[in-house]
Amino acid sequence: xxxxxxxxxxxxxxxxxxxxxxxxxxxxxxxxxxxxxxxxxxxxxxxxxxxxxxxxxxxxxxxxxxxxxxxxxx
Length: 74
Fold this sequence. Notes:
The protein has one helix at about 1-15; strands at about 20-25, 30-35, 45, 55-60, 70-74.
């Protein structure tokens, strides 16, 4: 959808690798989870509302039982 596309475009515009997964998470508002093939330093601030509390992506520890690096997540 357009939100996922916009986030992927913004990540690439900043010179970061494209996320492997952009997953929408069920909440009252909008929440996305990003996962990258390589470690990406965070937190990331993305989008037009990044200075107003929107677009904050912070890293989480890797999921149990996976070898994936945790990507920043909002």
